[in-house]
Structure formats: C-alpha cells, structure tokens
Amino acid sequence: MSKAFVFPGQGAQAIGMGRALAETYPQARAVFDEVDEALGEKLSDLIWSGAIEYLTLTRNAQPALMATSLAAMRALAAQGVELGAAAYVAGHSLGEYSALAAAGAISIADTARLLRTRGQAMQDAVPVGQGAMAALLGLDLAAVREIAAEAAQGDVCEAANDNDPAQVVVSGDKAAVERAVELAKGRGAKRALMLPVSAPFHCALMEPAARVMKEALEAVTIKAPSVPLIANVSAAPVSAPEEIRALLVEQVTGAVRWRESVLTMAADGVDEIWEIGAGKALSGMIRRIDRSIATRAIGTPDEVRDAAASLG
Question: Least crowded by CB within 10 Å, which of 43, 226, 237, 304?
C-alpha cells in the first residue's frame, strides 16, 4: 500500500488534545516543551487545561494544532514508524506548516513562531465582525464559484476551501457571505451555514496577512522536505524550498484545494491516508472524495500503537 500523512487545520482543536501522547511518550512531551520555549509561554497549559475560547483564538489554535500533530509524529517514530513510510505529506491550511515541520523542511521552533505570527496577522487583517465564512453543502465548486461571484456585489466573496465534492466554504465580507448563503439555499444546497470563525480566511481580504507572512518567511530557513508536499494552492507536489516559501505566502489569500490534493495523491497510487493529530475531519473529507482510500486517524497512544502494529 502507498501511504500519505496529512495534518488537520483550524477547527480540530480541543482542550486536552495531545496530553495522553505527552504522558506516554517523552518524545511527544518534548515537542510541547519546544513549542512553549519558542513562544516564550506555556501554550501546553492552555492546550491541556485552559478555556476552549482562548485555545480557539487563531493565534493560539494554529501553533497548538501543529504541536499536537508533531507530538503524534514523534510518538509514531518512537514506535518505529518514520515519515519515510509515506509517499507524500499534505495539510489543510495551517496543517501545511505541520506537514513541512514533520518532513524536516522547517524546524518545530520556527514553525511555532511562524504560526503564531500567521494567526495574529490573519486576525488583525480584518476587524472582527466585518468578515465571515460559510459552508455550502451539496454544491460543487463550479456552482459555488457562480454563487460567490453573484453574491459579491462589489464586496469580496470567494470560494476559500474546496473540501470535498459536496462541501465548499466561501469567505469574504460578511454581507456578501450572507448573500451567498441565501443564494445557495435557493440553488439546491443541502445546507448553507455561517461558520464560527474569527476572520475570513483564504480570500483577498487576507492580503495584509500575506504581506506579514512574506516578511516572516523570508527570515526562516526552509529545507527540501524529506517527502514531497502536496501544496494547498496548487494541489501538486513540491519539494523546492523557494517554491514552498512562495506557496506559503500565496496560501494566505489563496483557496485550499483539498479535494484536488487528495485526488492528486490517489492518481499517484496512494491508497491509505493517515490523519496525524487532533480530530478526524480530514478523514471524513477523504472518504467523500474517494471511497477507495483507507483512512486512519492518529491522535492518541492507542491509535499510535495500532498504526504501528498495522505495518507489521
């Protein structure tokens, strides 16, 4: 079987995530310590025993989810499962940074600081309440793009996440996104709902954040990943450090082409995908994209042991 390792994005966060990994595997605990040190604060305390509303703040959720994913990778390594077992890595939005850290392209400390900067910059780009995102279910990408264009009316409204064949997320100015929700209901969407997010990610309104990230990424060492990354904005494999740097800037305003990314991996023979870190959202998307791909979520010590045992 050909495997890929994928890493979740915002929305997967939960109080207590990764704690059992850290208590079971010293190598996993070391990841949280490294992230705490890089950020100069005890983010691990917030992750394991804080308030969910603080963990959900973009500036906290992004490094916290990365830390949990990398702790799971270190636990897998302790059980003898190395990243080389995968043909590709990929991540959903911030998960792309987790994928790159897992593949040795960016150090964990630099990744934590980049994600803190990214989260803060995304939050600062649009005043709270001015932007919004909505999930349109039961419509394909072409239909959603038409709706977004019609809903814009001079505002920003764009398809931001092409998650699976029946779930596309739009992002932009709040009034335009609300118009898109109403239009979608009239165009046969099964559901159209506003999302509880603090900013309109992956659209043109994030341009100020893209400028911040360009500067931040220029100051960081990026190496070729040990296995190729399927990039969000191109849905194609990339290994060249300078191309990765440019794509990470583009990713701030560009759409997450998750459906196409999974299809790219499947077309190259990937028939099993492991979701590394918190939650199981990506596994659900993957099953809706291609039912022939086996999925496995790995975020607890038992899941780590079962995954290692599956490799014999």
Answer: 226
Helix intervals (H) in the chain: 19-24, 26-39, 43-49, 52-55, 58-78, 95-102, 108-125, 141-152, 174-186, 207-218, 241-253, 258-267, 281-289, 301-310
Considering the chain, what percentage of its residues have pLDDT values greater than 70?
100
Query: For the chain, first and last CA: distance in Å?
Result: 13
Per DSSP bridges, beta strands 191-194 and 229-230 are unpaired
Query: Of the residues 202, 234, 261, 283, which is catalytic?
Result: 202
Whether 33 shows a pLDDT value over 90: the answer reads yes
Q: Of residues 93, 171, 198, 283, which has the active-site annotation?
A: 93
Residues 26 and 103 sit within 8 Å (Cβ to Cβ)? no
Average model confidence (pLDDT) across the chain: 97
Please enumerate in sequence order all residues whose Cβ is within 8 A of that of 291, keeping only pairs 6 or more positions apart, or say none.
Answer: none
What are phi and psi for residue 149, nearest 5 degrees? -65, -40
Q: What is the DSSP string of 119-155?
A: HHHHHHHS-TTTEEEEEEES--HHHHHHHHHHHHTTS
In DSSP terms, 229 is beta-bridged to 89, 238
Structure tokens at 268: 């190259």
93 as an active site residue: the answer is yes
Residue 92 annotated as catalytic:
no
For the question of whether the overall pTM of this predicted structure is more than 0.85, the answer is yes
Q: Give me the mean pLDDT over the 15-41 stretch.
A: 98
Name residues whose C-beta falls within 8 Å of residue 273's C-beta, 6 or more positions apart in sequence.
3, 4, 5, 6, 262, 265, 282, 283, 286, 293, 294, 295, 296
Task: Average the pLDDT over 182-204 and give the result.
Answer: 94
CB-facing half-sphere around the CA of 307: CA atoms within 13 A: 31
* Each residue's pLDDT tens digit, 255-312: 999 999 999 999 999 999 999 999 999 999 999 999 999 999 999 999 999 999 998 7
Positive or negative torsion for Cα 141, 245, 216, 55: positive
Report which DSSP code applies to 85.
Answer: G
